[in-house]
Design goal:
The complex is a heterodimer of chains A (237) and B (295). Chain A is an alpha/beta fold. Chain A has a single domain, classed as 3-Layer(aba) Sandwich (Rossmann fold), CATH 3.40.50.300. Chain A contains 9 helices and 10 strands. Chain A has a 6-stranded mixed sheet with strand order 6-7-8-3-9-10, with helices on both faces. Chain A has a 4-stranded antiparallel sheet with strand order 2-1-4-5, with helices on one face. In chain A, helix 2 packs parallel to helix 5. The longest helix of chain A is centred in the last third of the chain and has 16 residues. The termini of chain A are far apart. Chain B has 295 residues and is mainly alpha-helical. Chain B has one domain: ABC transporter involved in vitamin B12 uptake, BtuC (Orthogonal Bundle), CATH 1.10.3470. In chain B, 72% of the residues lie in helices and 4% in strands. Chain B contains 11 helices and 4 strands; from the N terminus they run ααααβββααααβααα. A two-stranded antiparallel ribbon of chain B has the order 1-4. Chain B has a two-stranded antiparallel sheet with strand order 2-3. The longest helix of chain B is centred in the first third of the chain and has 31 residues. The termini of chain B are far apart. In chain B, 48% of the residues are buried. The C terminus of chain B is likely disordered. The chains are: A alpha/beta (237), B mainly alpha (295). Chains A and B meet through helix 2 of A and helix 6 and helix 7 of B.
């Protein structure tokens, strides 16, 4: 099967500091792949490179066979790539509804309204707050909104950066349940997380990043039973 | 009583003009993080457009809207020619570039048009006074209030009711994420400049209608006022520019009324002293920023 995303030998550098050191990985259509690792391992830099927000110092990224290096950030949405960035980064001054409209800006206006209906159907809490200013939502609600905004384009490929960061445990479970459900419905997901246990529980495959390198890769199942992963990321078992 | 009404009219009329200019500055700042010092020169461009259109025999009421569009177009060209090549540089480079543009335009006006001010014949609608019992109010001021309020309502409708307006606000909120959603950066920046130019044009027409002349330095005074307005209002949100504009207009009107004639000369100085004291208490302005602008 052809890969949806092929990341080949990429390097991301901030001046002399190499945040990502020539890593390669792939995501097949329909998979849920997770990249796990501690703070500063280069996970977000990797995602930013995929989104076109960081220039590549080396290597290439191909999405459905097309070279993403030549495609501006703005075109990602048209290609079916949706993103929920680290730290949620909702448009705080805009209402929930306006956030969703901005998320669906590449759609026709009638389709955009239909999509708001269907996305909000998935998140009843957002339906209640549709006219509320997004900045006044709770952290969990903002995270839901960030995911909902990414879902506006009904993406084929959903990129989620630390969706559970800073959320209450109960909300964290809801978020993971939602991601699992989206993947079950056929959406390809690339999930970057620090919550290793929950990520491995829903993922097909996983990559472990450390200091800009991929140090482990394999099926999520193998990893969750791996002693070393347990010691490094899940606390002593 | 009549004094109070006259005072309110002056405050609103000045405040409205400052608010239009300040909003233009804030719109561009929201996306690119710099204050465009050439903003006032867009007013001057609008003024000279009216001057030349009138000289060509066009009626004022056709010349004014055309000149406003010219100001919008000039703003877009300014971005395309001078600011776009510097995209991604620090806001400081853009700021300094805007100084250069302002100077260059100023010199061009002096060389190619005239260093002296040129008279602009104003239609009768703008001259004279309306009387309400004992109260005399200048027609130009009333028209200026109506026009600026209409412009503000239209702008607000555009920003909240249209998809492109929402996209522009999303870009001002977080440009990087907005682009990842598929909002086109170039389109948004052009739109922001076009809006700022049109607002400066409207302010210019109001300014000229009350003064009947255009000179190379016409835009500088109001530009400095708009700058003060955005700084007291706070740059993080367009609301700040709006408040700042009206507060500044009100302060100026207050001093105009309470100062004895021999002191009126010091009005601006006094307004500035008040603003400096205000900024010592609230350095981020009235509407304090929640996040740094993204680029």
């Amino acid at each position: 099967m052809a890969n949806l995303l092929d990341v080949v030998d990429i390097e991301v550098a901030y001046g002399p500091i190499k945040a990502v050191k020539r890593i390669s990985f792939y995501v097949r259509a329909g998979e849920l792949v997770t990249i796990i690792g501690a703070n500063g391992a280069g996970k977000t830099s990797t995602l930013n490179a995929i989104m076109g927000l960081e220039p590549l110092a080396h290597g290439s990224i191909r999405y459905k066979g097309a070279d993403l290096g030549k495609i501006p950030v703005e075109k990602r949405a048209v290609l079916g790539m949706g993103v929920s960035p680290e730290g949620r980064r909702i448009f705080g001054d805009l209402t929930v509804r306006e956030n969703l409209i901005a998320g669906g800006i590449t759609l026709s206006s009638s389709l955009c309204l239909d999509r708001i209906e269907s996305v909000v159907g998935r998140f009843p809490i957002l339906a209640e707050r549709i006219q509320q200013t997004a900045g006044t939502l709770s952290g969990g609600e903002q995270q839901m909104l960030a995911i909902a905004r990414a879902l506006m384009i009904a993406p084929e490929f959903l990129i989620l950066d630390e969706p559970s960061l800073g959320l209450a445990p109960k909300i964290v479970s809801q978020v993971f349940e939602l991601i699992h459900q989206l993947n079950q419905e056929g959406m390809t997901v690339l999930l970057v997380e620090q919550n290793v246990r929950k990520s491995l529980a829903i993922a097909d495959r996983a990559y472990v990043m450390e200091l800009g390198n991929i140090v482990r890769e394999g099926s999520a199942e193998d990893m969750s039973s791996d002693q070393k992963i347990h010691e490094s990321y899940l606390g002593a078992a | 009583m009549e004094q109070l009404i006259q005072f309110a009219i002056s405050a609103l009329s000045l405040g409205g003009t400052y608010a239009l200019l300040a909003l233009g500055l804030a719109t561009v700042f929201g996306l690119l993080g710099f204050l465009n010092f050439a903003h006032g020169d867009l007013m001057t461009i609008c003024g000279y457009s009216i001057y030349f259109l009138l000289a060509a025999g066009v009626s004022f009421f056709i010349a004014a809207p055309i000149a406003i569009l010219v100001a919008g177009l000039a703003a877009v060209l300014m971005e395309r020619i001078a600011f776009r090549p510097l995209r991604g540089r620090s806001p400081m480079s853009l700021l300094i570039t805007s100084f250069a543009i302002s100077l260059a335009l100023h010199v061009c006006f002096q060389i190619f048009i005239s260093p002296k001010s040129k008279p602009i014949p104003i239609p009768d609608v703008f001259s004279g006074y309306l009387t309400f019992g004992e109260v005399y109010v200048s027609k130009a001021q009333i028209i200026s209030i109506i026009v600026s309020i209409l412009a503000l309502i239209l702008l607000s409708a555009f920003m909240t009711k249209t998809r492109i307006g929402i996209a522009l606000r999303a870009s001002a909120s977080d440009f990087t994420v907005a682009r990842a959603m598929g909002i086109k950066a170039n389109q948004m920046i052009m739109l922001a400049f076009a809006i700022s130019g049109v607002l400066a044009g409207i302010a210019a027409v109001m300014w000229i209608a009350q003064r009947g002349a255009v000179s190379p330095a016409m835009g500088q005074g109001p530009m400095i006022k708009a700058l003060i307005a955005v700084i007291i209002g706070g740059l993080s949100h367009p609301r700040g520019a709006l408040y700042g504009g009206f507060i500044l207009g009100t302060l100026e009107a207050i001093f105009l009324y309470i100062l004895p004639d021999s002191w009126v000369l010091y009005r601006d100085a006094m307004v500035l002293v008040i603003l400096i004291s205000f900024l010592m208490v609230r350095p981020n302005g009235i509407v304090a920023p929640s996040t740094e602008p993204m680029r």
